[in-house]
């Protein structure tokens, strides 16, 4: 009894000291101010206040509620990342989400981001849990059965991330028998299995990268855009190897059958790609990971139904 | 509705089922060993060991199992301890369950009439003999029912391993969900598998109870 | 607590025994010290005590996130606790009903949900309905499972209430429902309070399953901090959130013991048992 009380007291003191340390206000993470003042600045998007999407049930409901619910990732550096020290989200996917939202008539403070894992994307869109999803979401026919896509707004390819000193893995073929980590519910799983790798799965790439850093797995596989972000975040420890062995077209997932919204999102993407916002957003996010902006993808006629 | 009998899912189910059984059985064994050791510590005449046992049990009984899985999976590699996901899962489950086994044993020891231990001591037995030959065998009877619920809970808890890269029934549920089958139909089949396991463990314990039952 | 039972197992030590215990004590101390030293040394070796790794915790935003995580955990726990107690009472009463179909249904429900792994239920609910509101998937799962467990606890409590109580209540002309709700359930809850609160501790611990379905309770927040801060402070995060959980659980357990001791103040038949 007495022992327990002492233990409890000691533990509470511990916890309190841990939590009650003096607070520092957030300074941005190291990657966002890497280039000092010369770093590329994020564009700002003009909110189109008179946007009117009659005939889009999703938009009408969001407008009435005064908030737009966007699904995203939270642990992919430069793509969809949540800076825990400032509590803000940043990255290329987040910028795409914001520019589209602006054209739909929603200001940044009307956006509510929700983190949704790869494996839960279709259900959350189909079940009206979110209005659209932007987060390294590959357009494919299987997913089109349940939802619609707008875009693509970026083209990536599956690649491999390994430790700097690893010379054994150079391309997809050399992963045979090696421990490769990827995420449940992503297209990467099936792709890598064809090469007879030993697949380890977690529900987010950051956990895979953690396993790679501690050498529990030999490689992490997914789209190069995601991997480049992690490589940049872990400068000097990790590298991306091999030619991309798949083509992943990132689209914006939205509710099936809402053609009006789909068209509006496609128009918004087109507009921002043409006026240079897309390139600016890329340079200020993914561009920081050291790869130049690829060509802007053509919108897919099949997503514009 | 007959998901296990379509598209070659049956082998998936069998693998998951065996995974759960293997994980649970190994963890049960280690939990039992650990529990006995901790219980002996906690009733021993050596204060240091008593304190250690108490602290250990207090910490691990009040830590969520998911957190322990998380710690074993992501903390150990950072300490340069490299073990497979399966070993990690067995470790997390054993440490967690072991603390509960210890508490059940301790409560069981408390049910043995004091006269028994006193009689043993008056025959000149030491602590080890008193505990091992007289008290524990009698405590076994009182311990069986609560021990049963600990070990019926173990396979249920092992499902968390599926979130940490161990292939078992929860992984089967996740895999099939991704393949796009009806979610509650999958749940039905996975639930059935767990019911079978629970029922089997329960049956083993009731058989044991019947065998050790004594007319009082 | 344990000293009394333990002291029955061995005599007051004589000189030789004292020496033996001393040796065992020294060896035990050394063993424990070695274990602790290994842990600390390895942590230090791997640079886990570097200030940079603990840096993340100095930011107000991070502390706020941890606090929000604690609050989310407690909120889920409060909802699940209330829900499971209500459901548990209903199921317990249902299992004691005079109507066979009601009994049968309640028995099936209780047995089914007691045997279900929580993860499996929560995951199904999350995938089917609550992908963007995972909290409700978690709460409903917790209520179903813990409700079934609490039902069994309450039922055994009702069965333990002396029969004269129910008979007296009936004799006063109370109806069945009134006998249950006014006489039996309150007494059952009182006698079973330690077990009920014990199960509530389990409920509190199980809220951490929210981690699996991306609900930002304490553990999930910890993971996010670990994976999104420079240097990946997985170990510091675990060292910070584990004590928080332990303290929360111990506080609940302490509440159970306090209530029990208050309940014991009356005329009880247990005081002499252990003497």
UniProtKB/TrEMBL annotation, chain B:
Protein name: Amino acid ABC transporter membrane protein 1 (PAAT family)
Ranges of residues in domain ABC transmembrane type-1: 17-205
A Pfam family: BPD_transp_1
One of the GO biological process terms: amino acid transport
Entry annotated with the keyword Metal-binding: no
Membrane-related topology note: Multi-pass membrane protein
Keyword field contains Transmembrane helix: yes
NCBIfam families: HEQRo_perm_3TM (TIGR01726)
One Gene Ontology term of the molecular function aspect: transmembrane transporter activity
Coiled coil: none
Family: Belongs to the binding-protein-dependent transport system permease family. HisMQ subfamily.
Keyword tags: Amino-acid transport, Cell membrane, Membrane, Transmembrane, Transmembrane helix, Transport
The organism's place on the tree of life at top rank: Bacteria
Subcellular compartments: Cell membrane
Residues annotated as transmembrane: 12-41, 53-76, 88-109, 181-208
GO-annotated cellular components: ATP-binding cassette (ABC) transporter complex
InterPro entries: AA_ABC_transptr_permease_3TM, ArtM/GltK/GlnP/TcyL/YhdX-like, MetI-like, MetI-like_sf
Automatic annotation (TrEMBL), chain C:
MF term (GO), any: transmembrane transporter activity
GO cellular component, one term: ATP-binding cassette (ABC) transporter complex
Keywords, alphabetical: Cell membrane, Membrane, Transmembrane, Transmembrane helix, Transport
Domain ABC transmembrane type-1: 70-256
Pfam families: BPD_transp_1
Domain of life: Bacteria
Any single GO BP term: amino acid transport
PROSITE patterns (UniProt xref): ABC_TM1
Membrane topology listed for this record: Multi-pass membrane protein
Annotated localization: Cell membrane
Family annotation (SUPFAM superfamilies): MetI-like (SSF161098)
Residues spanning the membrane: 21-40, 77-96, 108-129, 135-158, 179-202, 234-259
Family per similarity comment: Belongs to the binding-protein-dependent transport system permease family.
Record PANTHER family: AMINO ACID ABC TRANSPORTER PERMEASE (PTHR30614:SF21), MEMBRANE COMPONENT OF AMINO ACID ABC TRANSPORTER (PTHR30614)
Entry protein name: Amino acid ABC transporter membrane protein 2 (PAAT family)
Protein species of origin: Kitasatospora cineracea
Higher taxonomy: Bacteria, Bacillati, Actinomycetota, Actinomycetes, Kitasatosporales
């Amino acid at each position: 009894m007495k022992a327990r009380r002492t233990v409890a007291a000691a533990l509470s003191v511990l916890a309190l000291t841990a939590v009650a340390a003096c607070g520092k206000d957030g300074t941005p993470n190291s990657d966002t101010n890497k280039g000092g003042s010369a770093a590329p600045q994020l564009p700002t998007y003009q909110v189109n206040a008179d946007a009117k999407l009659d005939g889009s049930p999703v938009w009408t409901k969001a407008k009435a509620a005064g908030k737009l619910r966007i699904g995203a990732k939270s642990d992919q550096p430069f793509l969809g990342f949540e800076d825990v020290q400032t509590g803000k989200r940043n990255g290329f996917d987040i910028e795409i989400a914001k520019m589209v939202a602006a054209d739909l008539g929603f200001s940044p403070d009307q956006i509510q981001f929700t983190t949704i894992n790869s494996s839960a994307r279709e259900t959350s869109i189909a079940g009206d849990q979110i209005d659209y999803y932007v987060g390294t979401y590959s357009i494919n026919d299987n997913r089109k059965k349940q939802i619609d896509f707008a875009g693509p707004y970026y083209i990536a390819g599956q690649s491999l991330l390994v430790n700097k000193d690893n010379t054994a893995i150079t391309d997809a073929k050399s992963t045979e028998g090696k421990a490769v980590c990827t995420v449940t519910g992503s297209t990467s799983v099936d792709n890598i299995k064809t090469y007879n790798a030993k697949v380890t799965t977690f529900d987010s790439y950051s956990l895979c990268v953690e396993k790679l850093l501690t050498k529990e797995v030999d490689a992490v596989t997914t789209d190069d855009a995601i991997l480049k972000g992690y490589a940049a975040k872990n400068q000097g420890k990790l590298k991306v190897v091999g030619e991309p062995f798949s083509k992943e077209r990132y689209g914006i997932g939205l509710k099936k059958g809402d053609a009006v919204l789909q068209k509006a999102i496609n128009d918004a993407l087109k507009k921002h790609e043409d006026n240079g916002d897309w390139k600016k957003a890329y340079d200020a996010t993914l561009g920081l990971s050291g790869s130049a902006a690829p060509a802007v993808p053509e919108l897919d006629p099949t997503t514009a139904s | 509705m007959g998901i296990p009998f379509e598209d070659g899912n049956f082998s998936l189910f069998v693998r998951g089922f065996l995974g759960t059984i293997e994980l649970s059985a190994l963890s049960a064994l280690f939990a039992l060993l650990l529990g006995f050791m901790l219980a002996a510590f906690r009733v021993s005449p050596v204060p240091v060991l008593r304190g250690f046992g108490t602290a250990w049990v207090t910490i691990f009984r009040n830590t969520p199992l998911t957190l322990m899985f998380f710690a074993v999976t992501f903390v150990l590699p950072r300490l340069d301890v490299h073990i497979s996901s399966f070993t990690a899962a067995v470790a997390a489950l054993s440490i967690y369950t072991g603390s509960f086994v210890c508490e059940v044993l301790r409560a069981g020891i408390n049910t043995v009439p004091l006269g028994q231990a006193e009689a043993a001591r008056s025959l000149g037995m030491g602590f080890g003999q008193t505990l091992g030959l007289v008290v524990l065998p009698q405590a076994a009877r009182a311990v069986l029912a609560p021990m049963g619920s600990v070990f019926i809970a173990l396979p249920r808890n092992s499902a968390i391993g599926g979130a940490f890269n161990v292939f078992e029934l929860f992984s089967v549920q996740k895999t099939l969900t991704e393949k796009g089958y009806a979610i509650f139909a999958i749940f039905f089949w996975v639930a059935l598998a767990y019911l079978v396991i629970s029922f089997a463990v329960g049956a083993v314990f009731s058989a044991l109870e019947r065998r050790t039952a004594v007319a009082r | 607590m344990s000293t009394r039972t333990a002291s029955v197992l061995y005599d007051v030590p004589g000189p030789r025994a004292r020496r033996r215990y001393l040796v065992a004590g020294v060896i035990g101390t050394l063993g424990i010290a070695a274990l602790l030293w290994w842990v600390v040394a390895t942590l230090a070796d791997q640079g886990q005590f570097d200030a940079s790794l603990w840096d993340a915790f100095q930011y107000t935003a991070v502390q706020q996130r941890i606090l929000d995580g604690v609050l989310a955990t407690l909120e889920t726990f409060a909802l699940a606790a209330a829900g499971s107690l209500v459901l548990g009472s209903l199921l317990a009463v249902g299992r004691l009903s005079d109507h066979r179909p009601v009994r049968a249904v309640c028995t099936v429900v209780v047995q089914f949900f007691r045997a279900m792994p929580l993860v499996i239920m929560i995951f199904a609910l999350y995938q089917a309905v609550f992908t963007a509101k995972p909290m409700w998937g978690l709460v409903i799962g917790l209520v179903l499972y813990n409700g079934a467990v609490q039902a069994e606890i309450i039922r055994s409590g009702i069965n333990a209430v002396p029969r004269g109580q129910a008979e007296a209540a009936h004799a006063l002309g109370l109806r069945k429902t009134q006998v249950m709700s006014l006489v039996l359930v309150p007494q059952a809850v009182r006698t079973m309070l330690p077990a009920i609160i014990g199960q509530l501790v389990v409920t509190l611990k199980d809220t951490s399953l929210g981690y699996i379905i991306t609900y930002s309770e304490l553990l999930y927040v910890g993971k996010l901090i670990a994976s999104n801060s420079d240097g990946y402070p997985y170990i510091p995060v675990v060292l910070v959130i584990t004590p928080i959980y332990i303290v929360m659980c111990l506080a609940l357990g302490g509440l159970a013991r306090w209530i029990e001791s208050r309940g014991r103040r009356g005329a009880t038949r247990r005081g002499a048992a252990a003497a």
